[in-house]
What does this fold into?
Amino acid sequence: MDQPFGHCGKGLTQRLGVPRYPSEQPLPKALYALASSSSFSSLTLLFTMAIQEEKFVSKEEYEAVVKKLEEEKAAHAQTKGLLAKETEKLQFALGEVEVLSKQLEREKQAFEKALSSVKNKVLTESTKKDKLITKCNEIESHIIKQEDILNGKENEIKELQNVISHQKQIFRHQISDFRIQKQQENYMAQVLDRKQKKAGGLLSSRGFKGLGDK
It folds into this structure.
């Protein structure tokens, strides 16, 4: 059986030498000859049959097209089912993402709140620390000043101790000299007293002797 399409076989139009698209190519000269003859009506009939033949397909082609269409429908249905499953999975995943996003936002807010609280505590502690450092520096400066004053006082005390020690030595020397002088004076007084007593004794003995001579 002849096939009507070019890819399926040669049709009647091709057997007759008539192009498939008459509007694109000119008719062969043989057709012009037939048109001028008495068999023009037969040619017209053949040409009409050829055009109608071009409009029909064979049963095999039809069944093949129907089978292909059914396969495409089945594939499309399968793809549609897979698409529905994937869409459902996507919607579920989007729901989970939304839940996780909200949870993450809550955790982020809680973290920022905790971080802000920690920052405030750190700032407060840092302020306290700065105040304590300032106070410690003031106390240290005061202690250094007091130490300088005490060192000055200690130096003064040492100088006074040196002066007192020197004065003690001078006083000791003076006392020693005074004692020696006192001893000398006592000795001289004793010597003078003995001399006076001796002289008085001599005078007394002479007096008594003179009275006896008379």
Summary: The radius of gyration is 76 Å. Residues 1-32, 34-40 have pLDDT under 50 and may be disordered. The CA atoms of residues 79 and 149 lie 99 Å apart. Residues 1-56 form one domain.
